Amino acid sequence: MSRLTLRDGLILFFLASGAHQAAADNTALINAFGGDPGSPIPYAYDNGVPVATGETYTLRIPVLNNDIKNIFYDTVVDVAVSDKVVYRITAARAYRTLGDCNKAREIISVHLAVGLPFAVTVDPDEWQRQSADGKVVGRVRCSRRNHDPMPVLSLTIVVR
User: Fold this and answer.
1) Using alpha carbons only, what angle is made at residue 87 by residues 82 and 91, rounded to the nearest 5 degrees?
2) pTM for this structure?
3) For each successive 10 residues of the chain (160 residues), what is the average pLDDT?
């Protein structure tokens, strides 16, 4: 193999591996909820690792999507210190009535379905949506525990 061919092969290899990494980010989840579990924290939110932290740290990310920010003002993004990869996104809000909670749940469900396009069939009581490769799962639900005075809308998106 000549040098030119070897060099060209290496260039193509590195370009292809970089393109695969860039394509791995789920921009629908990032734009709607501030991150993509299983992918690095978006550059705009990467201000370094906090001092004296454990294995993970938490960021509160303001919601930019107009539909979602009327429901959740921000999301909580949990990040691994070692590689700055998002492993969980959560958000919660209390509502006065179950009807109001369910209306908000429907709006969030539409955006969740864009980022996680497949319905979960294995454990639908726990998770509602999943990514194409099944590695990321999510749910949005209204619940009212006995000690809660009002229903709570909660969102969870995690790496399975």
Assistant:
1) 135
2) 0.81
3) 44 37 72 93 82 86 94 95 94 95 96 94 81 94 84 95
Nearest to 138 by CA among 122, 115, 121: 115
- Full residue range of the structural domain in which residue 42 is found: 26-159
Give the count of beta carbons closer than 10 Å to the beta carbon of residue 28.
Answer: 16
At 37, give phi and psi (nearest 5°): -55, 130
User: How many CA atoms within 13 Å lie on the side-chain side of 108?
Assistant: 31
Residue 117 lies in a domain: yes
Count of structural domains within the chain: 1
**10 belongs to a structural domain:** no
Q: Which residues pair with 140 in a beta bridge?
A: 155
